[in-house]
Amino acid sequence: MLLLLIFAPAAKAQIYSWRDADGHLVLSNHRLTDPSQPVSQISPADPVRTASLSSVERGGPYDQLISEHAKSNGVREDLVRAVVQVESAFNPYARSSKGALGLMQLMPATIRQFGVVNPFNAAENVRAGVLYLRQLLDRYDNNEELALAAYNAGAGSVDRHGQKIPPYAETRHYVSKVTEIAGKAAESPNRTRIYRIVEIIDGREVVRYTDRKPSM
């Protein structure tokens, strides 16, 4: 499906375009942060025609990455994929006005917490984003909606509102949208328990998650 974007001649914003790693055309009103990528400037007076790629096409290059980190941290793959889709539309160079960066829109505090060197590196970004999501799921007893609300508005906001989704239109829309895309977690009479295991390897703590009860 083709979308026609027409910019009025009087508009002052500049539109920049570049090709991503898969050769797809990307349009943005922000200049690309990666200086190694060629950037061309488009006059806002010129009509721009671009193809709208499906979420499957955009997310395809990151499927293995998402699957790897989701499985190793006991988080639903569909949930992680939905978060990436809503947060950045699978754009590894996404940057929000609030300072969130990359595929999973990591905030500076999250970047520091999980030792991310380059938030625009897909592997680093997804690793930290999934670890943070796992942390929030642990905090809210695997309640995905509360974890998503905390991912969007911060855990402090969720806690201040009695561990309920804060009454912010943006946050409620975010939780609803991600849940709609990911689907509800499968419910069963016997709820699956996720175990957090900490191992000491070469003097460092290594955390992993599993649905199998560890032997004592």
How are the SSEs placed, and which strands pair?
Layout: E1 2-5, E2 15-19, E3 25-28, E4 40-42, E5 48-51, H1 55-59, H2 63-72, H3 77-88, H4 108-113, H5 122-139, H6 144-153, H7 155-160, H8 169-182, E6 195-201, E7 204-210
Antiparallel strand pairs: 1-5, 2-3, 2-4, 6-7
Q: What would you say this structure looks like, in words?
A:
The protein is 38% helix and 16% strand. It is globular. Residues 1-13 and 38-56 have low confidence and may be disordered. With 216 residues, the protein is of the alpha+beta class. The longest helix has 18 residues, at 122-139. Helix 3 (77-88) packs across helix 8 (169-182). It has two domains: 2-52, no CATH class; 57-205, Orthogonal Bundle (Lysozyme). The strands form three sheets. It has a three-stranded antiparallel sheet, with no helix packed on it. Strands 1-5 form a two-stranded antiparallel sheet. 26% of the residues are buried.
Head-to-tail CA distance between termini: 57 Å
Largest sheet: 3 strands, antiparallel
Count of helical regions: 8
User: What's the CATH topology name of the largest domain?
Assistant: Lysozyme
pLDDT below 50 for ≥5 consecutive residues: which ranges? 1-13, 38-56
What is the succession of H and E elements? EEEEEHHHHHHHHEE
